[in-house]
Amino acid sequence: MHGALRTNWTKIIGMMVFGFLMIVGFLSSIVFGLTDIDLQMVMDAYTHFDGTNEQIIIREARVPRALIATAVGASLAISGVLMQGLTRNPLASPNILGINAGASFFIVVAVTFFGVVSLTAFTWLAFLGAALAACIVYFLGSVGPQALTPVKLTLAGAAMAALFTSLTQGMLALNEKALEAVLFWLVGSVQGRDLDILTAVLPYLAAGWICAVVISSKMNALALGENVAKGLGQNTWLIKGVAGLVVVLLAGGSVAVAGPIGFIGIVIPHFAKWLVGQDFRWLIPYSALLGAILLLAADIGARYVIMPSEVPVGIMTAVIGTPFFIYIARKGDFST
Amino acid sequence: MRKYFPFRIGGLSLLIDRKATAVTASLFIVFLVVIVLSVGIGDLFIAPLEVLKSLFGAGSDMHNLVVRSFRLPRILLAALAGMALAVAGAILQGIVRNPLASPDIIGITGGASVAAVTFLAIFSTNDNALSVSIRWLPLAAFAGALVTGLLVYALSQKKGTSRMRLVLIGIGLAAGLQALTNFMIILGPVYLATRATIWMTGSVHGATWEQVVMLVIWFIVFFIITVVLARRLNVQELGPAVATSVGSRVNRDRNLLLILSTALTGGAVAFAGGVGFVGLMAPHMARRLVGSAYGGLIPVSALLGGIIVMAADLAGRTLFLPLEVPVGVFTSAIGAPYFIYLLYKSRNQ
Questions:
Q1: B208 touching A (Cβ < 8 Å)
Q2: Which of B49, B62, B291, B338 lies at 20 to 30 Å from B246 by C-alpha?
Q3: CA-to-CA distance for B89 and B300, rounded, in angstroms?
Q4: How far apart are CA A277 and CA A11, in angstroms?
Q5: Which of B152, B142, B197, B155 is closest to B174 using CA atoms?
């Protein structure tokens, strides 16, 4: 299947355009908001720091926030593309398959029961939760002769998400004090997050991005079906394992930084496919750029909806993503 | 012994399944025993015989008070919520022809949650009180469930209702509604967060007779309609092609049954909150006991649902004293592994 951009040249130009848009989004994310800031002030904050309120806001709030939104948006989109490729299910995404919920659940358990506050612990817990949920869902979806039909996998994911969500709610209902502390982990947000959290997770995210690019040509073979890929001499288990690991790193890492932000992993891959077709070598970089742009834009929007307070960006993405999910589900062909 | 025996009065005639009748009767006895036992167990232990006396107002004043004002309404509410959810689940599984569908998975419970939390957020005053009576909360929850049910249904229309599309769209909507609920919790005052969380998990704490009466009426009306329509559900289960060829109006029946299921869920969720997984478990257990003919399946599911929720509530209020665990935590803790087991078992289908 071809996308809207056919030739390699248009794809490269397209990538430059989206790269430019991402930079525009990044700068807008620093400039727009309750406090008026212009680009000159941003420059000054790093070259002539004088400790005014605006400069502190830029250095402590706006820039970290923009960086986090970019990294998380790109990571979620890549993990969505890989999941859709791995499971050959157009509805797969970290949110729908319960991976975000698993990561959140582990963090909430750690905070409520063990009073964990360290960033490293959060990161590893999020990875662990994401990995556990991914393994269970994948196992449940793939047992049996008619393995991994979209409906089966989606149901398995929804069940795991329901399980983790209800257990999380149960814990919170018992422990009122913890609720305020972990409310954040229930809805994704990139606001008020320390840059330290990003730097703690960044190595894993970066490793995930690089691996995703490295395996992209192998993913193309896998997309033809497991038997074809084997016939072409590919070690399908290895590729699937690596892709699964990348999904866990990117989705888990994103939850550790920004909480469970949904729907980016489902919206972006479809849009990217519409642009460049099925070739993973293009899909992955395009998804990364588009994911970053979407999350930056959603985050800017989140500041203006109920000014002066803010909507968590996870809600904005849900508002954008739910209709899209329904559109994809309706497009599918179900004879009964 | 024949499997069925006929029952005729005038123009009305039915074939009654012997096994289903026996199972229903014995489950009904178990149901009553569970009521009596769970009324007796608690901070103050009351012997079963004393419970029976108090139920009819013949016990000591103390016992009468505890049994009739505190424990009984709560236990009956739990039982009714469980029954309504179980029947709703049985209907839904029949329509969708997928044993894994249940009102909580396809977002109907989520819709009720959004409405309830929005209600609490909008009508909260600054001094942590509500500006309108809390009695309207069930109505809001029911409206939420109904709107979501209709939305799931309307969105899955495309040359008729596709059952798989129905499930997928339900799952998507449920995820979106979850985000909205969280938004409302964050937007509202802090005390609301606790209250809303307990409500969403499902709890029958502080039930009143008024609630019980309202839910009883609601449940009985829709239960009777469901039993009357049971044979249409049987036809639905055969699949659209067979159903059409035996003269059933497949789409119209499907819509009618979906509304019934939503109404039952809405009623239960409105009073007891989002008690999870009952709508999934009870019909399955019932199918094991009496097979999949809906005439027997519906009453048996209802009784099992009631027993499950009562038992979960009993565990929730006694096991972790002085803490009281919301009933929904227990039903999910049992229900989710069961769901996984079902998924695993259905791998060969």
A1: no
A2: B291
A3: 12
A4: 10
A5: B152
Note if the bond before B322 is cis, omega within 30 degrees. yes
Q: Beta-strand (E) ranges in A126-283?
A: none
Identify the burial level of A43 via C-beta atoms within 10 angstroms of its C-beta, where 0-12 means exposed, 13-18 middle and 19 or more buried. Answer: exposed
Set of chain B residues whose Cβ sits within 8 Å of the Cβ of A167: 329, 332-333, 336
Residue that is written with structure tokens 């139920």 in the block: B55
**Is A163 in contact with B336 (Cβ distance < 8 A)?**
yes
CA distances from B14 to B5, B11, B257, B294 (A): 8, 10, 22, 13
**Among candidates A311, A252, A233, A124, which has minimal Cα distance to B185?**
A311
Which residues on chain B are in Cβ contact (under 8 Å) with A145? 347-348
Chain B positions touching A158 (Cβ under 8 A) are 105, 171, 174
CB neighbourhood size of B205 (10 A): 15
A 10 A CB-CB count for A307 gives 10
A225 three-state secondary structure: coil
Tell me which residue of B15, B38, B52 sits closest to B231, measured CA to CA.
B15
Q: Which residues are paired to B124 by β-bridges?
A: B130
Q: Which residue in this structure is represented by tokens 């006396």? A: B53
Closest CA to A154 of B107, B164, B104, B179: B164
Closest residue in A to B203 (Cα) is A173
Are A166 and B336 in contact (CB < 8 Å)?
Answer: yes
With contacts defined as CB-CB under 8 Å, which chain B residues touch A151? 98, 164, 167-168
Question: Rounded to a whole number, what is the distance in Å from the CA of B2 to chain A's nearest CA?
Answer: 36
With beta carbons less than 8 A apart as the criterion, state whether A34 and A45 touch.
Answer: no
For A233, the token pair is 């001499």
Peptide bond into A308 cis (omega under 30): yes
**Token output for B348:** 């060969």
ipTM of the complex: 0.79
DSSP track, A284-324: HHHHHHHHHHHHHHHHHHHHHTTTTS---HHHHHHHHHHHH
| Nearest CB neighbour to A170, from listed B158, B162, B201 | B201
pTM metric for this prediction: 0.81
pLDDT by residue for chain B (349 residues), tens digit each?
Answer: 566 667 677 666 666 777 888 888 899 999 999 988 888 887 778 888 888 888 787 778 888 877 788 888 899 999 999 999 999 999 988 887 777 778 888 888 888 888 888 887 787 766 666 667 767 777 788 889 889 988 888 887 776 666 677 778 888 888 888 888 878 877 777 667 777 777 777 777 777 888 888 889 989 999 999 888 888 888 877 777 787 787 777 778 888 888 888 888 888 888 888 787 888 889 988 888 887 788 888 899 999 999 999 999 998 888 877 777 888 888 888 887 887 787 777 665 5
What kind and span of H or E run contains B51?
helix B48-55
Q: Is A335 at the interface with chain B, CB within 8 A? A: yes
Cβ contacts of B187 on chain A, cutoff 8 Å: 306
- Our measurement of the distance from residue B10's CA atom to the centroid of its chain's CA atoms, rounded to an integer in Å, reads 35
Query: At B6, phi and psi to the nearest 5?
Result: -80, 155
- For B7, counting Cβ atoms within 10 Å of its Cβ (0-12 exposed, 13-18 middle, 19+ buried), the class is exposed
Q: Please give the structure tokens belonging to residue B137.
A: 């909360």
Instruction: Determine the Cα–Cα distance for residues A75 and A73; give it in Å rounded to an integer.
Output: 6
